[in-house]
Write a structure and sequence with these properties.
four-stranded antiparallel β-sheet, alpha+beta, 23 helices, five-stranded mixed β-sheet, globular, single chain
């Protein structure tokens, strides 16, 4: 009997099932990593982790060994999502039990704001500084401004802490559980939003290490996930349906805007999208009013309570002049020494990019509509604070828009060629920002080594002001992470125009003394105008010694690989007297460098003895480049 050849439909169905099976196995493996994390987090979780690991392994085996139908696929995905929900809550509990602390001041501020409200205080008029010690936030993660102030006020709209308020009495770190639940809700919404073969991507993303390990324990962005994912999935309901269902997408946007300012960028984007889809001013106004009401309602009490304080605090991330940092274009002045004279130009470029996109959306909606929800990530890539979290927030939504794009009808109108001009102001602003050199130059940095701390806790910096106006810089040190601003203890506060001055600064805490285990830079900041200057890298691990004789003195100097002097004071250097015949060390002299990084040993020439030197401090990275008799 001749077997019939498989039809095109059969082949497509087979590929669809294979894709779904592969994604289920990948998601289960991602979940397995989460189960391993639970096992390593606490001995108390061992029994739970064993049950989870066993259930996940059985699920993987079943998926690999069985020819699955659509119904079985769906049930297996639900089982894995249920296991994921249990695993994530267990991991959150284990982490808080073993290491009860918040990793960022953002989480501590939101949790403490809920605590203050629970006790009848207005979080927008009360300092949040006590939360940093209450929730054990490392000082390295506190927020500082360009003028050397610590940010201790609430910097987010009200829903960022109101969602934590009902659980204040549950535990001191209830915010972690709220974050975990919100992330779970977002994952389940994503599951229903994705098309059939790809639904398990919601599990893969939900169990992704960055999200369950970093996001949940460090940021309130988890609260954003449910409304943003729902908005990306169902925003067309606002004009395709009538009644209360049509209000759900704008309400979701308004709630997201009431959690964090990053969602604000979507408001005009969605208004233009609704107008271009419906050609109806009425529908657009309806969307705007519903979204605005959803934003105002959680904030109304605080607006009435103290309108000035509320407005000042929610605008603080924009108006406070925070220290620059992140993974965006700000890396050009911070790491590549390009620009830095006017930091405000980077923020201006971000706003111009946003305005350019809005204009492009109006002119070329059929093309631009595929990228509506990616805009906040692109806009926030340009300003002076462009942290990875802003980019990672987009990924859950990106999965939805990716499949929506596949189902989007082709553009009916060609792109207007001249419309690219709307991005010219952004490009010109960035060119100017990068072309203008830093106004200050670090000519020399003298490091003051502390034997007690085995590191550097004072630095004397010689700085030249190349501009025609006086500048009052603040100093920090960057060694893989940005240390808090150091305290000026000597030297002028203001460097006159065209002048050179030496300023001595000290680390704000003994815990921030430089350990000399990695390269670091000295960073100078000023608020008027907002600017940054970054010194050349200091690389202690590449230091070495030069040794020479001058009359009856032996001199050993700390130098870089290129031969430039390293001005480090009180750094330990050993000079060894070696018998020229036996090659054995007869005596070792332990000395400390002067301000120029040089040690001197009185010793008359002796053909039977030669001297060599080595770095005796923590770098221990080099010996003498030669030896002398």
């Amino acid at each position: 009997m001749i077997k019939s050849q498989p039809t095109l439909a059969d082949t497509a169905s087979s590929h669809k099932q294979l894709t779904r099976k592969v994604l289920i196995v990948m998601s289960a493996l991602q979940l397995l990593i989460l189960a391993f994390e639970i096992a390593g987090a606490s001995a108390l979780m061992t029994a739970f982790s064993l049950v989870l690991i066993s259930a996940i392994l059985l699920s993987i085996t079943y998926a690999l060994a069985t020819r699955l139908g659509d119904g079985v696929f769906r049930h297996l995905e639900w089982v894995l999502l249920a296991l994921f929900s249990i695993a994530l809550l267990l991991f959150a509990h284990a982490q808080i039990t073993v290491s009860p602390q918040y990793s960022t001041d953002e989480m501590s501020f939101d949790q403490y704001a809920a605590y203050l409200l629970f006790h009848g205080y207005n979080p927008y008029t009360t300092t949040l500084a006590p939360s940093l010690s209450m929730y054990h936030v490392p000082q390295i993660h506190w927020t500082y401004t360009l003028d050397n102030r610590q940010l201790t006020n609430l910097s987010y709209p009200a829903l960022s802490f109101l969602l934590y308020a009902p659980f204040v009495g549950l535990t001191s770190f209830s915010g972690v559980y709220v974050n975990a639940v919100c992330w779970l809700i977002g994952a389940w919404i994503l599951y229903f939003a994705l098309p059939s073969p790809y639904k398990s991507l919601s599990l893969w993303l939900g169990a992704f290490w960055y999200f369950f390990q970093i996001l949940i324990f460090s940021f309130s962005d988890c609260l954003l996930m449910p409304p943003l994912i729902f908005l990306a999935w169902q925003w067309r309901l606002s004009f395709e349906r009538s009644g209360w269902r049509s209000l759900l997408p704008p309400i979701a946007l308004g709630l997201a805007m009431s959690i964090k300012q990053t969602a604000w960028f979507l408001f005009p984007v969605m208004l233009i999208a609704v107008y271009r889809e419906t050609k109806s001013v009425r529908q657009t106004l309806k969307f705007a009013v519903a979204a605005t009401a959803a934003f105002i309602i959680p904030n109304i009490v605080f607006i009435i309570w103290s309108p000035v304080a509320w407005l000042k605090d929610i605008l603080a991330p924009i108006t406070s002049g925070l220290l620059p940092g992140g993974v965006g274009l700000i890396q050009l002045p911070l790491h590549l020494h390009l620009g830095g004279a006017y930091l405000s130009l980077y923020t201006l470029a971000g706003l111009l990019l946003w305005c350019g996109f809005l204009a492009d959306e109006l002119l070329n909606y059929d093309i631009v509509k595929r990228f509506l929800f990616i805009i906040p990530a692109l806009v926030l890539f340009l300003p002076t604070r462009s942290f990875p979290i802003y980019l990672m927030d987009v990924f859950p939504v990106l999965f939805i828009t990716m499949f929506q794009r596949a189902n989007t009808t082709p553009a009916t109108e060609p792109r207007k060629r001249w419309s690219t001009l709307v991005y010219v102001p952004t490009l010109l602003t960035l060119v100017v920002a990068i072309a203008l050199p830093a106004p200050l130059t670090v000519i020399r940095a003298q490091l003051d080594y502390s034997n007690a701390l085995h590191g550097v806790d004072q630095i004397a910096i010689t700085v030249r002001n190349r501009t025609d106006r006086p500048i009052s810089p603040n100093v920090s040190v960057f060694d893989n992470t940005l240390d808090p601003l150091w305290t000026r203890i000597e030297g002028p506060r203001e460097i006159p125009a065209g002048s050179t001055a030496t300023v001595t600064v000290q680390s704000s805490s003994l815990s921030y003394a430089l350990s000399l285990n990695s390269a670091f830079t000295v960073n100078l900041y000023a608020k008027h105008p907002p600017m940054v200057t970054v010194s050349k890298p200091f690389s202690p691990m590449q230091w070495r010694l030069s040794i020479a004789r001058s009359g009856n003195q032996i001199e050993a100097a700390v130098i870089e690989q290129g031969g430039n002097a390293v001005h480090i004071k009180d750094y330990p250097v050993g000079i060894e007297a070696v018998n020229a015949t036996s090659r054995k060390v007869e005596r070792t002299y332990m000395l400390h460098t002067d301000a120029n990084g040089v040690v001197k040993l009185n010793s008359a020439p002796n053909p039977g003895v030669y001297y060599q030197a080595y770095l005796a401090g923590p770098t221990r990275s080099g010996t003498a480049s030669g030896f002398v008799h």
